[in-house]
Amino acid sequence: MTENKKDNRYDQGIEIMKGMMGKNGDKIAEELQQLHPDIAHLVIAGYADIFGRSGLEKKERAIVILTALIIQGATDQLYAHTYTALNMGLTPNEILEIVIQCTAYIGFPRSLSALKVIQEVIKENGLEFSKLP
Amino acid sequence: MTENKKDNRYDQGIEIMKGMMGKNGDKIAEELQQLHPDIAHLVIAGYADIFGRSGLEKKERAIVILTALIIQGATDQLYAHTYTALNMGLTPNEILEIVIQCTAYIGFPRSLSALKVIQEVIKENGLEFSKLP
Amino acid sequence: MTENKKDNRYDQGIEIMKGMMGKNGDKIAEELQQLHPDIAHLVIAGYADIFGRSGLEKKERAIVILTALIIQGATDQLYAHTYTALNMGLTPNEILEIVIQCTAYIGFPRSLSALKVIQEVIKENGLEFSKLP
Amino acid sequence: MTENKKDNRYDQGIEIMKGMMGKNGDKIAEELQQLHPDIAHLVIAGYADIFGRSGLEKKERAIVILTALIIQGATDQLYAHTYTALNMGLTPNEILEIVIQCTAYIGFPRSLSALKVIQEVIKENGLEFSKLP
Amino acid sequence: MTENKKDNRYDQGIEIMKGMMGKNGDKIAEELQQLHPDIAHLVIAGYADIFGRSGLEKKERAIVILTALIIQGATDQLYAHTYTALNMGLTPNEILEIVIQCTAYIGFPRSLSALKVIQEVIKENGLEFSKLP
Amino acid sequence: MTENKKDNRYDQGIEIMKGMMGKNGDKIAEELQQLHPDIAHLVIAGYADIFGRSGLEKKERAIVILTALIIQGATDQLYAHTYTALNMGLTPNEILEIVIQCTAYIGFPRSLSALKVIQEVIKENGLEFSKLP
Questions:
Q1: Are residues C63 and C127 in the same domain?
Q2: Do C36 and B111 touch (CB under 8 A)?
Q3: Rounded CA separation A20/A119 (Å)
Q4: Can you tell me where the transmembrane regions are (chains A, B, C, D, E, F) (predicted)?
């Protein structure tokens, strides 16, 4: 019984991850299972509880996620979630704009480190920053 | 000449601050001048260069600013900028939603500290979180 | 149905909070509800999922919690959770020992800030650090 | 004279490091000497003053150390000190439990980054997380 | 014997603290003793080992200390150590200059929070920032 | 017109970067342009506004920069800016001294991570720490 309830939040979380991360959703769920089923359940059910809420539009939620990772300097996750941000509707130049706004809070070095990771992902997806304002 | 150029970015910054912060814009500019004219110029001209850019909608920029302050635990500025966020078009419940999303990145204690400050400002402005989903 | 499942994790979380925090458990649950029912549910159900796990002894879990708050400099929560730590079986001198060990990771200033808060709570509870080794 | 006193704390520190780190103790002392004798002395005598104190059991001290490194995101040291934690008596599943508890304070991304490093060290030592509760 | 050695580093540390902090040295040593003799010994002997080293000029060491506290946002210690910085030879405008340089690494909000604390201490000591470049 | 004013701060920034970074100045300006012209302009004009100020001697400013990067754990930039610090007049042993002083604020692990990066750059430049006090 408890088990079924758990699975319910887990299954919802999987759907939400796929909706956000597109092609990467299953791969990341699989990686979490490889770490340990308990951490996979905690994180994926957390997606149901947190990322799956209404109250922000999809693109707005992507802005919160990307800003959080840039401000924290979470380079590993920034790599994975720049694609998520693109998949949730942010354009490369909107992402650049978020990084530039973040310089007001983390200064230059950490903004530049974030932008290097982001640029790499944008190129890997065949996209680029527009150079004209 | 150099002086005029400086004043130009400063004057633009003042306009952008007022547009973002509403009634608080002049007060904060005055406080910055009281600290020191050089830091006032640096910050306010920075508003022209960073906060005054196009590329994000007003409300989207407010989401970046608020997320950055919550993630950093910048309580002092969060107090001032929750009003800014309301002034830039975020509703109390959208702000709550940003805090809840941030728990995925900073955990419970720092999210709750942020929410206490935010709730205080929301009440001071005669607003409240809606309790019904 | 969904509601019932939710309440189940919430009710478990309330029990776990009371077990950990003693007399403060109900007060903190009430404060969370005052902030917003959604954040109260997220945090308290999180207690069921995280704090309520087996795998560490009660006192060992208290060491993780206290260390985390000291390292983060989460002063507000440190105030509340020093009592929790005492309630979960740590002695004042074991708490002092944790702070001293933490100086290896955060240096002197933040350790001393933590210790001031901790000492205050210990005194309020009619306890004191033993001065003899 | 001063020299002898210094060597005394240094020698005590070496013994404490070996007791904690097992086979890695001499290697890390050597690496510190390669950096600079002054930093080696400062760190190793610090082991005598801080890590060598009584007041926490060996396994409890290992919990403080591991929690501190996870919360700080100190990936380099986490790699070295996961072995230390195993050597001081923590099981792989107790370490997993510490990481899960830490998600309450640092959220998902940094917990997952820590767990990846930890899992690698656990595998290198021919150990694994138990998957059954 | 061990006791004497300990006292030696402690006594050296007291002298170094007094040299750096002027009138505040004895007061801070007393506060540390009030927290606990063990933490007092650890911190004050640490002054002998770290702050008492040669290799940087007095004013240069003050720059490291002040920069570290500003970057960390260690407001409590910044209050105490702005006086220390003045006592070690930094002028109010050099301190302002350090804060302005730090905006490149921590952005505006945390620089402004630091500057507010610093300005307060400077005023309490009957000093002020020069407004002319 | 606006364009000319912008170029003026940019050109000043380029000169200041070259003065600080020596042979690396042009390379880093080029890398910033490769990221995006807007971020290049923001950072390089920021060099004119912040790094180009008078009020600290060259070597003193280098101490602020290096301390900031060590305290933040900004490894990427520390790699680039250790050379900058040498170019601005700090000796290898003065840099070591800054790291040792920083242990009082960030503890051992992050100081050691910084020192490894710094030692690598010092060796690449055919220099070394002096081992004799």
A1: yes
A2: no
A3: 20
A4: none
Closest to A113 in 3D by CA, of F39, F124, E64, E111: F39
- Asked if A35's CB is within 8 angstroms of D119's CB, the reply is yes
State the pTM of this model: 0.94
Domain shared by D20 and D43, yes or no = yes
Under DSSP, is residue F58 helix (H, G, I), strand (E, B) or coil? Answer: helix
D to E CB pairs, distance under 8 Å: 9
When CB atoms are compared, the residue of E39, E46, E74 closest to C115 is E39
User: Would you state the torsion angle of the CA atoms of residues C77, C78, C84, C88, taken in this order, to the nearest 10 degrees?
Assistant: 130
Q: What is the rounded CA–CA span in Å between residue D16 and residue C101? A: 14
Does D110 contact chain A (CB < 8 Å)? yes
Query: Could you read off the pLDDT of A66-80 as tens digits, one per residue?
Result: 999 999 999 889 998
Q: How far apart are CA C42 and CA B111, in angstroms?
A: 11
Sign (positive or negative) of CA dihedral E49, E52, E57, E62: positive
Residue type (1 letter), E55: G
Task: Read off the amino acid at residue C40.
Answer: A
Whether residue C72 is found in the same domain as residue C101: yes
- D chain contacts of residue E42, beta-carbon cutoff 8 Å: 49-50
Query: For an interface test with D, which of E7, E8, E9 has the most D Cβ atoms less than 10 Å from its Cβ?
Result: E9
What's the pLDDT tens digit per position in B74-120? 988 999 899 999 999 999 999 999 999 999 999 999 999 999 999 99
The size of chain B, in residues, is 133
Tally the domains of chain C.
2
B114 and B78 within one domain: yes
Pair (A46, A61) in one structural domain: no
Q: Are the Cβ atoms of C108 and F105 closer than 8 angstroms?
A: yes
Measured CA to CA, the distance from residue D102 to residue F94 in angstroms comes to 38
DSSP state of B132: -
Name the residue in chain E with its Cα closest to that of A101: E107
Same domain, yes or no, for B73 and B120?
yes
Complex-level ipTM: 0.93
In this complex, is the C-beta atom of D71 within 8 Å of any C-beta atom belonging to chain B? no
- Residue A98 shares a structural domain with residue A119: yes
The parent domain of residue C5 ranges over: 1-53
Alpha carbon E46 to its chain's center: 14
Q: What's C132's domain CATH number? A: 1.20.1290.10
Do A66 and A124 lie in one domain? The reply is: yes
What token pair was written down for D61?
Answer: 């001290």
